[in-house]
């Protein structure tokens, strides 16, 4: 196989695999998009080729659904990703419903909300724990894997951003002596060389493709954090134990948590003062101290938040791959090996451009302290070194997000009532189960207590729901903007009472009445006075933009764009009410916001529609 072009790689592979390809692709960052597109285009052009693509989290640029959104996004996307970012062609065809009969795409995790309403993607979804994905891919007949890898060092390659499934899948496929298969790695010059189990020799691959992928790393734009999210993250930060272990996900709730952890560490007096003014319900797990001993990160996802914690001096607790040495470290002994242990073990990484720059800039001494492994090691305790991994993960706090929680503690994190999949289970169940298996380990699920739906405000703490991600018998800790609900070991009645304490006051009476009617709550039980204060107005008294900024870790938007983001969001929400739209149009004064309107081409409106939107946007900016 010496073909010097992507098309040549495709032809060589088709010949070897007899025109029938079951392609396994890593999730998120590690896809070699142009090579994938070459395989896809070849199959689309030849119906005799059978191609099944099995993957997850296919990253794509956001698609504007309104001309005003297009005007805002297009200049930003061109600036942020460049004008020639190689988008995945199969995503466009899935979206438009034109996938050829000889090609199928099967996914086990979606970019959040991206597949809602898409019949083909919903039908081809596999619900699988992250640790079971390698097994399921092997069972579905995977015979080709493609992956971006880092440039070699000292004769070794690194799986870099995606050893997560690749390592476990390779072991399984190598046991199938009767299956023709190929493992291809394509070198990406900007992928950092990551240590840990991600380091492999050249024999790991059947072929290393040296062609320039001409594919910028997908840098996630840094998005704003609402005050509601800051409040959730603040309460979750009360649960992280010094000298502990941390796992977190991605998104604004995770950003809010990291911001509050840094606040707790750097301004502990201010942190405690704020808690004192809030007077939240007490929690036995609470730790308000600064991080004198530091934290160790053990997370399937390694992302910006861990970088910020490292820079703040919080991600500093070392672990060692020797059980005796680790126990000595846990006992507080002074070790000659200090400074050589790992502070972060991850399964895959994804983040901002600044995060990738951070990884590439790690010194020779720092780099081995940030390691990457397969999820079989990160997401569970059953790899053969259970005693060591439990010792390393002392005081573990596995912090994830969910969409809803039911009255008795089941969590809804990945799908809707009609079985439409929003994202996927990913590794959430793995970490919840692991928390219950470890002495001192806790699963913490963050959620917003309310959301806007169909122009109405609804509760995310619900009586019941047709399906769940985490069953109620694994209930542990839930955190909303109003506080902490520790449900572990509690009766159903105690769970209901505790959840009332962290739900919005607007929905408490109906929830309690339902519980009484079902015989799950004593008829004389009264909602505590503290819970009655759970209102948005009360939150606003404690969480301000001075201490809890919209962009706590910087922004990829310009100053003008940062003003437009919330204005466009308000306008979108307002669009559900014609009377409110009309009122806004009457009060809008475009002359007050010439620069903002010019950014969207509305400073000199050329039609009645543009004049209307200029007034509406001006009203949102006032």
Structural description of this entry:
With 622 residues, this protein is α/β, with parallel strands linked by helices. The protein has 24 helices and 22 strands. The strands form 5 sheets. It has a 9-stranded mixed beta sheet, sandwiched between helices. Strands 3-2-1-4-6-9 form a 6-stranded parallel beta sheet, covered by helices on one side. Strands 16-15-20 form a 3-stranded mixed beta sheet, with no helix packed on it. The protein starts with 5 loop residues before the first helix and ends with a helix. The mean pLDDT is 95.
End-to-end Cα distance: 63 Å
Cα gyration radius (Å):
25 Å
The overall pLDDT, averaged over residues, is: 95
- Describe the main β-sheet briefly: 9 strands, mixed
Instruction: Tell me the number of strands.
Output: 22
The helicity comes to 25-40%
Uncertain parts: none
Question: Helix segment count?
Answer: 24
Shape: globular
SSE class:
alpha/beta
Share in β-strands: 15-25%
Major beta sheet, strand line-up: 7-13-12-11-10-14-17-21-22
Could you outline the blueprint of secondary structure elements for this entry?
Layout (H helix, E strand, L loop, with lengths): L5 H11 L3 E5 L8 H13 L4 E6 L11 H15 L7 H8 L6 E5 L11 H5 L9 H7 L4 E6 L6 E3 L7 H9 L7 E6 L7 E2 L2 E3 L5 E3 L17 H11 L6 E5 L3 H15 L1 H11 L16 E8 L1 H8 L11 H8 L13 E6 L3 H8 L9 E3 L2 H4 L7 H7 L3 E6 L2 E3 L4 E2 L15 H10 L4 E5 L3 E4 L2 E4 L1 E2 L14 E4 L2 E4 L5 H9 L7 H10 L11 H4 L3 H7 L16 H16 L3 H10 L6 H6 L8 H14 L1
Parallel strand pairs: 1-2, 1-4, 2-3, 4-6, 6-9, 7-13, 10-11, 10-14, 11-12, 12-13, 14-17, 15-20, 17-21
Antiparallel strand pairs: 5-8, 15-16, 18-19, 21-22
């Amino acid at each position: 196989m010496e073909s010097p072009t992507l098309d040549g790689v495709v032809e060589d592979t088709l010949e070897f695999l007899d025109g029938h390809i079951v392609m396994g692709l890593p999730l998120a960052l590690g896809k070699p998009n142009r090579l994938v597109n070459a395989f896809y285009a070849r199959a689309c052009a030849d119906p005799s080729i059978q191609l099944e693509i099995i993957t997850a989290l296919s990253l794509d640029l956001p698609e504007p659904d309104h001309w005003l959104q297009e005007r805002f996004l297009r200049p930003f996307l061109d600036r942020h990703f460049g004008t020639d970012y190689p988008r995945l062609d199969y995503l466009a065809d899935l979206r438009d419903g034109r996938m050829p009969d000889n090609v199928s795409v099967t996914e086990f995790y979606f970019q959040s909300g991206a597949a809602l309403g898409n019949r083909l993607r919903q039908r081809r979804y596999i619900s699988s724990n992250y640790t079971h994905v390698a097994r399921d891919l092997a069972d579905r007949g995977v015979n080709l894997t493609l992956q971006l890898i880092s440039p070699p060092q000292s004769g070794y390659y690194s799986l870099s951003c995606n050893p997560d499934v690749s390592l476990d899948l390779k072991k399984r496929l190598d046991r199938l002596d009767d299956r023709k298969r190929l493992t291809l790695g394509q070198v990406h010059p900007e992928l950092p060389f990551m240590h840990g189990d991600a380091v492999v020799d050249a024999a790991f691959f059947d072929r290393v493709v040296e062609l320039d992928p001409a594919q910028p790393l997908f840098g996630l734009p840094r998005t704003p954090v609402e005050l509601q999210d800051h409040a959730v993250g603040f309460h979750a930060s009360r649960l992280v134990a010094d000298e502990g272990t941390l796992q977190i996900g991605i998104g604004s709730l995770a950003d809010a948590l990291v911001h509050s952890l840094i606040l707790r560490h750097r301004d502990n007096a201010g942190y405690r003062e704020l808690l004192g003014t809030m007077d939240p319900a007490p929690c036995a797990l609470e730790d308000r101290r600064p991080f004198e001993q530091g934290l160790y990160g053990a997370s399937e996802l390694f992302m910006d938040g861990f970088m910020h914690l490292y820079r703040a001096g919080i991600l500093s607790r070392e672990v060692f791959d020797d059980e005796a040495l680790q126990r000595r470290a846990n006992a507080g002994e002074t070790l000659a090996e200090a400074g050589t242990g790992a502070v972060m073990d991850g399964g895959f990484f994804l983040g901002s451009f600044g995060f990738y720059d951070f990884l590439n800039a790690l010194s020779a001494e720092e780099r081995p302290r940030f390691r990457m492994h397969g999820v079989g090691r990160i997401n569970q305790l059953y790899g053969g070194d259970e005693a060591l991994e439990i010792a390393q993960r002392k005081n573990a706090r596995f912090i994830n997000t969910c969409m809803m929680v039911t009255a008795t503690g089941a969590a809804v994190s990945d799908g809707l009532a009609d079985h439409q999949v929003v994202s996927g289970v990913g590794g959430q169940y793995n970490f919840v189960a692991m928390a219950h298996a470890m002495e001192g380990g806790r699963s913490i699920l963050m959620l917003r207590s309310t959301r806007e739906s169909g122009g109405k405000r609804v509760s995310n703490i619900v009586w019941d729901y047709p399906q769940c991600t985490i069953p109620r018998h694994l209930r542990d800790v839930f955190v909303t903007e109003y506080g902490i609900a520790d449900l572990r070991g509690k009766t159903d009645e105690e769970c209901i009472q505790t959840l009332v304490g962290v739900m919005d006051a607007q929905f408490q009476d109906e929830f309690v009445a339902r519980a009484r009617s079902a015989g799950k709550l004593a008829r004389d039980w009264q909602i505590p006075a503290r819970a009655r204060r759970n209102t948005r107005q009360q939150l606003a008294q404690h969480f301000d933009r001075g201490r809890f900024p919209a962009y706590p870790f910087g922004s990829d938007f310009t100053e003008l764009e940062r003003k437009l983001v919330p204005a466009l969001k308000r306008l979108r929400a307002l669009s559900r009410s014609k009377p409110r739209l009309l009122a806004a149009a009457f009060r809008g004064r475009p002359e007050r916001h010439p620069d903002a309107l010019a950014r969207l081409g509305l400073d000199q409106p050329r039609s009645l529609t543009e004049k209307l939107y200029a007034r509406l946007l001006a009203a949102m900016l006032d």
